[in-house]
Amino acid sequence: MLSGLSGTIATVSLDTEGFYLAVNQYDLHFPKSTSELPQFTKTLTTNALVRHKSTAPRNRSLFMLKDYKLWAGLLYTMNITAFNAIYGHYITGPAAKSWSLFSDITFNTVHSFINRSSSLTVEDVQRLSMAFKFPVSPFLKRTKFTVPNEYRKRAGDLLESLFSDEEQQRIGWDWRKKRDTDTEITGEWLQRVGNPLDPCKESVVLYLHGGAYYLCNYEMYRPFLTKLIKYSNCRTCSINYRLAPQNPFPAALEDALATYLYLTQPPEGEGLLPTDPKKIVISGDSAGGGLTMALLLAIRDAGLPLPAGAMPMCPWVDLTHSLPSILLNMMTDFLPAVGFKHAPSPALDYAQLPQRQQDTKMLEEASKKAKEAKDKHKLTIPEDEDDATQHRESIGPFGIPVPHTDDDNDMYRVQFYAPNEALKLPMVSPIFDRRRLRGLPPLLIQCGKSERLRDESIYLTLQGTGTFPDKNDKQYGKSTKITLEIFVDQPHVFQVMFMWTKPTKRAVRNLAAFLAEVTGSPANVRKGGKYLSDQLLSVKEISPRGEMVDAKTRLLEEVNEDTWNKWNTRLARPSIKERIDEVRAYYHQLIDQKT
Predict the structure, then answer these.
(1) Helix, strand, coil percent values for the chain (each to nearest 5)
(2) Candidate list 112, 137, 232, 286, residue with the active-site label
(3) pTM listed for this prediction
């Protein structure tokens, strides 16, 4: 099909320590004879200084050398994926109509990487993701910090007071026992070099990174945060919270709340000034967006001073995956079709977690039944002479389920972050907030129209603003002012993945404008008039060209009261297995249609 075609492609390499960009251009020709190989001829090599040369030693690479075997296999298949993406882009077209070739290649490469990494263990993938550490811009000042463990204890005590005994049992482990033994929370401040503003008057973004609650670090988000600082002149505070499955819910929330307490009530005698909550905006992407919402609920329910606002980007707020877009946008998003799964490993042995004394006997009985189950999908941890729990069961979320009993009425666990019994806890899935997300500060929610979590952002918005009130609506408190931005043709976390596009530039500028208005910082002077609407609910749609229009009327026509009731029915379903079976069936249906 490609015989006789010619074209030009380019490869880009980045020296992350010296910050030189090398661009190699090739002429590509497909011969008319299928027996001949395509010919590549290098026609241009360009070296460009893309930022000031670093004074840091240059013997470090973006990826840790000790993981070269893991990277070798993944990168080999990613190169094949890139060429397949080029072919598909010009022959069948991209998954979303407006995507450029570069966006299409990026999308397919990320999608392939996620799928290929499922053959690795959680520990391997965590190590690889933690190796992504982008350098700090020379125009920014970095200040590292550590949150003392006393703040984690204070945060944990507050959270404990918010959980009922029944909710504690559903959480499934004694998370309080790890407060003192786990390492302290680490993070960094980023701000402009030579910023003359009074830190007490600057707006502060507390950023919580994404990664499905089990991957990534704040260093990966430096390029994005650099853009946000450029447009807003804010300071950013980002942390590495504890990751699942080794530290499931509520460990990440405990760390996020501890950091908020650290900002607003710093330790005495260290020369730190408290940050006014009215100058703080909490933000995060994907799981970090869900954690942002969970943190707001915790702050509200604990009676702490609320921040000025929050900016969840493509937030993951329904860990039960109940809403339609999880199915309908399967082909235009890089998230794995049936969720994240990995090879068996000690990280997936949840029995190693500290257990509540009253749960120990129950867990032993459940473990015994699981070992006796003759299910064909049974998995065990590889033998380790030093591991006393080497024969306990291991499972992978959304992957191969291990049932409680032989009848397999439901799945054992589908998420790394929390057991099935806890997935509807409001601080795990904020979409199930008992107060319907009322009484929160102003929110700017951004989502991609083509992403699988799109409907979660829409539901979050309509619920918080009280667009479809129920009979108990007056009990929930004051409605939350929310601006929802829907970006046409954009996948999950496009703000981070497609940073060169017009929609992303518009997204970051809007984040900066929202930040300016809710904090009232003198550093944030917006040109072009007021950004926030006076209306309780504001909906905007952004085109692939970055053009923004009002879309409230259209959204309410598409998501009317009948649709709203259907969504609530889907959310109320008790069975997790029913949801996962639905996702699997829909995925296989799509595959059959393609073939």
Answers:
(1) 40, 15, 45
(2) 286
(3) 0.81
